[in-house]
Amino acid sequence: MSMSAARGVPGKRERLVVIGGDAAGMSAASQARRLKGPDELEIVAFERGHFTSFSACGIPYWVGGDVPERDQLIARTAEEHRARDIDLRMRTEVVEIDVAGGRVRARDVDSGAESWTSYDKLVIATGARPIRPDMPGVDAPGVHGVQTLDDGQALLDTLAHTRGRRAVVVGAGYIGVEMAEALINRGYEVTVVNRGSEPMSTLDPDMGRLVHEAMEGLGITMVDDAEVTKILTGGDGRVRAVATEDAEYPADVVVLGIGVHPETALARAAGLPLGEHGGLLTDLAMRVRGHENIWAGGDCVEVLDLVSGSERHVPLGTHANKHGQIIGTNAAGGYATFPGVVGTAVSKVCDLEIARTGLREKDARRAGLQYVTATIESTSRAGYYPGAETMTVKLLAERRTGRLLGAQIVGREGAGKRVDVAAVALTAGMTVEQMTSLDLGYAPPFSPVWDPVLVAARKATKAVMSATS
Amino acid sequence: MSMSAARGVPGKRERLVVIGGDAAGMSAASQARRLKGPDELEIVAFERGHFTSFSACGIPYWVGGDVPERDQLIARTAEEHRARDIDLRMRTEVVEIDVAGGRVRARDVDSGAESWTSYDKLVIATGARPIRPDMPGVDAPGVHGVQTLDDGQALLDTLAHTRGRRAVVVGAGYIGVEMAEALINRGYEVTVVNRGSEPMSTLDPDMGRLVHEAMEGLGITMVDDAEVTKILTGGDGRVRAVATEDAEYPADVVVLGIGVHPETALARAAGLPLGEHGGLLTDLAMRVRGHENIWAGGDCVEVLDLVSGSERHVPLGTHANKHGQIIGTNAAGGYATFPGVVGTAVSKVCDLEIARTGLREKDARRAGLQYVTATIESTSRAGYYPGAETMTVKLLAERRTGRLLGAQIVGREGAGKRVDVAAVALTAGMTVEQMTSLDLGYAPPFSPVWDPVLVAARKATKAVMSATS
């Protein structure tokens, strides 16, 4: 990300239109407003939902009870945005982008009334929509997604009115495992049904296996290699079980945590360029390719993966916020870029921490990279210090060059954020051998004398040397 | 650190002599043994003390009761080393190095008997000695250093037999603050007397102030700007108070935590090159400069500071272990290097975490660098997530280039190890602007959507832009 001061075009008041009032869109609007006052730049933002600038990542913790109040997840209300001279129109859905005409058609969700709004500059931040499998029963009462605050409230309402305590979570990615924790915290017996061979397919299967075992240790029933074929309902029409080809899992409540797709129907209809994952394609300034005055960011775009060199869809709030900053700076006439991602993610299930960055083995193969791996076990603190917890660290390094390609960590307290060391090393293009001499913080309450990441780097260095032939 | 496989010189059995049986020395011996068997390489190690390969960094936690048993701090016993064909001679002090003759003179500490041992290769790992101020009363019963396991045992004996509960810690560096925690854990009223303007002089004073305030909040009496002039004893000869020019602080026990000097008397007498901090000077392969067959590492050497470009003395177990690995590899005919340090350190006092890396403001000035600073407050987790704790992050960036020069963090749980992100960024020579787009792990239990280090990088980027004129 690079920034420079905004340059004004004196005399003309421009209009910036933002589609989507969540992280990317409202960060863009806020940053543009910071750089240009309302006399220079009018900002109009359209949001079809009831809420703006909320933390979707926080929903599992609200559902689980760690976050008592919905409104704690709202970073900034519509009123707060309006107080900063952003003309935010809630419950208003943009239904068409007229690129040639430089205007958008918006519909009032409640009244159905439509009108056109012209723009000088446009920001597309339409986010993502949850994958909702097309199968019998998926719309039955008691089956819930967890994408929006309304979804979260509906799930909480179901939990409050359901006597049975059996929950099935469909999907074992980060939303699935976080929802498993939430439902355990609410006192449910939780079954996670997952079509992959192990949970957390964002990890290699050997590391996913550790997650499987740890989740079973938490009392969660793990069903792998199982495709859900339908959702069975009872006489009252409510969900009663989740069915796979081989089995049925009784359920009083079902949570769908299967993932999301970029929400780009509008962009597609407008002829804007989409990538192979269905997300908008932008340049490094987050401008939609080929369109000088249209930017896009957040869950509706594809981002450059700096390790593989190809585009990925990585729907995460942290990227959406960064995109918003970049877009707001550029749309206000400044200069900023987003170089790409290395693919870092952390999640937790109760006291289990799961982290990854960079490429998995299959990503490396797909990118044409040959690699070695090294997996080690170590502890979060000096072995003799109270609370030292075991963690497993796996590194991938390129064959011959030894360049770090990826890291995966599964452990307890102190495991997850250690992935940041690998994320920075990846960004810098370090070799695993260079990593062995990283000057990381050491004291017995914080780390063994060799930090687990360094122990893994040493083993990976040996693997690179052995494979150099 | 780079490594390559060891190359043997066939036919000749060489002798490697190691002076000092702690982290650097025994890591070197063990690594050399891993690469060369006893038929190729004889390894003789001399240790003047009672223990080998112990964690000096763990002593405060043993004294404080977090680590119940002394032997938990011993990573490897003398017997374990001997079982790997290392001829480890305990209670045997090397009293002379005859460089020209390729031999060392060793004395049995108990009997006084002396003998010469010749070497083909020599490792000097004599460590550091605690600074013990030359003042009246410093040797009185009840005044303790905490450098060795014997020191720790002596202090524990004093604590067990002392009825009074008033402890004075002299010095407020990392040993001082860790000992303050240990004594609080033992139920003492603790006063820390410190000649600096704030505790933790490894931080800038503005960050040290936060440590001062937090330690007072923990019930510790903090006395800054106070040079201890003498230690007062009672009628029984035991310590009764610590005196400064202005005041007396009653004490039933006194702990000296003033720091250490490189232990290089032997090396100096042998004419080996020492730096301005009194430590041995080595090349990047940890070879003593100008001596093909002598290596040195651990607390007795100076290391290259990669940020300032000059040598520093950084006595830390984590470096000593790395040095040992490098030396063992090279002494066994392999190839490995230690590039230097960026100066990372973490410590804690009860629940307060303190971390630093790179240059302080005064270090930057001394290195001829112009800089800007940025200090921010943020939280360890999403603000709405339970257990989110405040932390303060300060960054230094070079004027004009924006290159990161240093980072300091003071906070609670989750603060300390965040310094690793800055440590890796420093090693990679990143600018604070490059840091703003680092792909760090985000989920509400682990971080706000903008990690505190990124928030600080954004503010530092603005400071660099404002100062670019």
Please describe what this structure looks like.
Chains A, B: It comes from Streptomyces lanatus. Chains A, B: This is FAD-dependent oxidoreductase. Chains A, B: Belongs to the class-III pyridine nucleotide-disulfide oxidoreductase family. Two copies of one chain form a homodimer. Chain A is built from twelve helices and 25 strands. By secondary structure, the first copy, chain A, is α/β, with parallel strands linked by helices. The longest helix of chain A is centred in the last third of the chain and has 16 residues, at about 450-465. Chain A is globular and about 65 Å long. Chains A and B meet through helix 8, strand 21, strand 22, helix 10 and helix 12 of A and helix 8, strand 21, strand 22, helix 10 and helix 12 of B.
Summarize this entry quickly.
The first copy, chain A, has 469 residues and is of the alpha/beta class. In chain A, 25% of the residues lie in helices and 26% in strands. In chain A, the strands form seven sheets. In chain A, strands 3-2-1-7-18 form a five-stranded parallel sheet.
